[in-house]
Design a protein that fits this description.
By secondary structure, this protein is an alpha+beta fold. The chain folds into two domains: about 200 residues, no CATH class; about 45 residues, no CATH class. Helix content is about 20%, strand content about 35%. A hairpin with a 3-residue loop joins strand 10 and strand 11.
């Protein structure tokens, strides 16, 4: 793991990636660069305003992380061989590192030697926590999201995934009426995605299956009715059984 971390640090220093995964041997980290530019906080960053509102009299309520808790994770990188001062190193994975995912800026934050470091999503193929696994959306075709991670529910020719979304509700305070909120709020939402041959679709019930299955939908609908399954994401357990049936028969 230490060898991989050293390799990542050196390469990121050379190519100047926007989020750095740095060791103590480096003179700066991503957070250092943000501090020089005015500070890394929930409102602005070195790459510009994130939320687009004047926060001089307001706060941002909520978090842009999947969860604020730190959890041990196994991080698998997209394979590549890089050159370090100690020779060639195959960038593969790190195991058991304390991590959390930022859903807004699409990076994984990790703890290395009691310091917080950042890895851009473009470097990472998957992040596996004890109870959940997230894969990179770049391995799919999905026009709604071109960077970030989606949670794995079930895989195969047909698969189910969860898209954890972040949006910002801007302050709506009206001084004249003295109503509304002066604070911006981070809103979390989850959309269920149906995958077919690496193409992702936002699930909207039977209609989505019909789009994929075409004329086969009648036979599948009959099976769903006879076996008390469901096309709806509100009945996820039944939906998982349906997708398993499709993988076995279609």
């Amino acid at each position: 793991m230490k060898k991989n971390i050293f390799a990542i640090v050196l390469l990121l220093f050379i190519v100047k990636q926007p989020y750095l995964f740095a060791q103590a041997v480096m003179q700066e980290s991503l957070k250092d660069r943000f501090r020089e530019a005015g500070g890394l906080n929930v409102n602005t960053s070195a790459i510009g305003t994130i939320y687009g509102f004047d926060n001089s009299t307001s706060e941002v309520l909520g978090s842009t992380y999947l969860t604020e808790e730190w959890t041990k994770a196994n991080i698998k990188f997209y394979p590549r061989v890089i050159q370090t001062l100690k020779g060639s190193v195959k960038l593969d994975s790190v195991v058991g590192v304390m991590s959390r995912i930022n859903l807004k800026q699409h990076f994984v934050e990790i703890k290395v030697d009691n310091q917080n470091k950042y890895i851009d999503a473009d470097w990472i193929q998957s992040v596996s926590f004890p109870q959940k696994t997230f894969v990179n959306v770049r391995d799919f075709t999905f026009e709604k999201l071109n960077k970030g991670f989606i949670e794995v529910i079930t895989t195969g020719k047909y698969g189910l995934y969860l898209w954890h979304q972040i949006s910002i509700k801007k302050p709506d305070y009206s001084p004249a009426l003295n109503t509304g909120s002066k604070d911006a709020k981070v809103i979390h939402d989850i959309r269920t995605l149906l995958a077919f041959d690496k193409q992702l679709y936002i699930l909207s019930g039977k209609k989505t299956f019909e789009e994929i299955l075409g004329s086969k939908i009648e036979a599948v609908a009959k099976y769903v009715k006879e076996n008390d399954l469901s096309f709806k994401d509100k009945e996820l357990d039944k939906l998982i059984l349906l997708v398993s049936y499709l993988n076995q028969n279609y």
